[in-house]
Amino acid sequence: MRNILHIIVSVVLTGVLGCSQKPEQVIMTVNGPIPALEMGITLTHEHVLVDFIGADSTGYHRWDKQEVVKKVLPYLAEIQEHQVSTLVECTPAYLGRDPWILKALSRETGMHLVTNTGYYGAHNNRFIPATLFELTAAELSDIWVDEFENGIEGSGVKPGFIKIAVDGDDTLSKEHLKIITAAALTHQQTGLVIASHTGPDAPAFEQISVLQSHGIDPSCFIWVHAQQGTLEGNIKAAEMGTWISLDNVSLDREAGSVYDVAWYAERIHQMKEAGLLNRILLSHDAGWYKPEEENGGTFRGFSGIFTALIPALTNQGFSREDINQLLEVNPHNAFILRNQN
Ligand SMILES: [Zn+2]
Hints:
Layout: H1 2-17, E1 26-29, E2 32-35, E3 41-46, H2 65-80, E4 84-89, H3 99-109, E5 112-114, E6 116-117, H4 130-133, H5 137-150, E7 161-165, H6 174-190, E8 194-197, H7 201-213, E9 221-224, H8 231-240, E10 243-246, H9 261-273, E11 280-282, H10 304-315, H11 320-335
Parallel strand pairs: 3-4, 4-5, 6-7, 7-8, 8-9, 9-10, 10-11
Antiparallel strand pairs: 1-2
Helix pairs in contact: 2-3, 5-6, 9-10
Zinc ion (ZN) is lined by residues 45, 47, 90, 285.
């Protein structure tokens, strides 16, 4: 009964507040809650470590925590020079999420790091253990809510958002419908924003409908890899309140190729023309330490937004206020905990 009341209250509040920011609102970092305004400049989708070996073989035995910390520290130092104070780490459980590493990196740098709960269904569910795969949406949600209430695996670290992933097909599979449903149930109990690895338009809108069928406002949903969607799709979803995550800015692509820096500048410019700059999140989807490679292999840094994209936007007439909207205001509004009193 208490749960039902709680759900009713959060649905009503979501409707009334539309997930807008209140001054006292907080985000959950690996060191506990902080006022959203303290997030500062934030990268909303990056990775410290990713282990693609598959759910059945991954585990903490696959990497040396100190070696990973040592490898990643210089890349965090680099973005601290660009005044970045918060990094949202998007690696889910069974793909290399390691809350102890994130805590160590936060302690060494003084940066805020944010981690997640949820499972990654994309790539045909190979990153979800077979035993968990049989669970219902409500049972999956119970696990994720427990991580929010009691911390992740005894680390004391609580997730700051729900991270899920679905395949980019035109229709969501039965399993991926279950995962977005579990995310909806978890959101209702925790107030955590839902970030879903999605890509194209069709699965984005299908997930938004599932959330709406649970009374959840689209402003509680981050369309991850929205650059793979159409401009029309991005605009339509943003008009509904969805967060549009343009998150694979990279200096590695040749100028003139799709998704080069100029492509991102143009997409952001088009969103601004549509009056939707306040729905955009920017990041590199970069990193990361690879356990299967010697000393973690090649690491892609997190600074292209500052060295190339922001200068390109400034050249197109973006003001300081516009840049602040993209790098500070939007991340704060996206990652606030929705149902704190
Ligand atoms: Zn990613």
